[in-house]
């Protein structure tokens, strides 16, 4: 039984970046031996185990063969005869096909270190084109600070074209597409994810309305809302968007409608609908958008004025009276501002 650190964690260490987590491959072992040593099995399609102390993932070395469509259309082969190099060869890019043994020795059969030095994404094998998810993973890798300025190898571009032509991107699950998108939104260079989708014609079918890129904001929800704004709020309706993202998007729409309205009554109605007291933090983030730059002071003054309103007078009113009194409080506070 031999254990090797593999994948993105080795890549990041070679780039001088502390990895968030580490993955491991086990060679010359079996599921039975892993369980005997206290590892907890979690894999459904192939043997993956959690370390009894660190909770890091340990997978038995395996090979794979395409048997269907999409990223799940593979059959896996694993036993103690599968070598480390065979396992590394099935990976997406050479920079992710580097391993490190328990003595710190680097195993790099596909010149991943050379490609790291030259800032190149190159496929580890021609089988790259069999998995459509890999092009989305590439777009997500481009959102990483340490990888955002890497280029795609010319030969790999050809394989990208084959994946697009196969139309297998449509066979990815909405959940997996959103997972890659969400991870990109959580990174420093989120805009690179969307720019990459456009550049390599990866927008159909999941991002077919993606035409422009703007990722203002320091929160994933804010970046997504800004991407929706710049694309006329028509981006990716088929993805399973979490409620926090939907709420941020609705708040942004309300802010934009508020700014564009010239009717004082309509403005007051929109402010009440925004629920400024509950959504104050996210609304204050929006005023920092470059697209709303000229309205920053105006929005801040309004939001802070609303936060200063004493709503305790509403406590003893009936439900029917609360709405009218709240509108009066808004009007009195904001009459000189809006």
From TrEMBL:
This is tRNA nucleotidyl transferase. Residues 149-211 form the tRNA nucleotidyltransferase/poly(A) polymerase RNA and SrmB- binding domain. InterPro entries: NT_sf, PolA_pol_head_dom, PolyA_RNA-bd, tRNA_CCA-adding_enzyme. It comes from the Bacteria. PANTHER family: MULTIFUNCTIONAL CCA PROTEIN. Transmembrane segments: none annotated. Pfam families: PolyA_pol (PF01743), PolyA_pol_RNAbd (PF12627). Its cofactor is Mg(2+). One of its GO terms (biological process) is tRNA processing. Gene3D superfamilies: Beta Polymerase, domain 2, cca-adding enzyme, domain 2. Residues 4-120 form the Poly A polymerase head domain. One of its GO terms (molecular function) is nucleotidyltransferase activity. Belongs to the tRNA nucleotidyltransferase/poly(A) polymerase family. Keywords: ATP-binding, Magnesium, Metal-binding, Nucleotide-binding, Nucleotidyltransferase, RNA repair, RNA-binding, Transferase, tRNA processing.
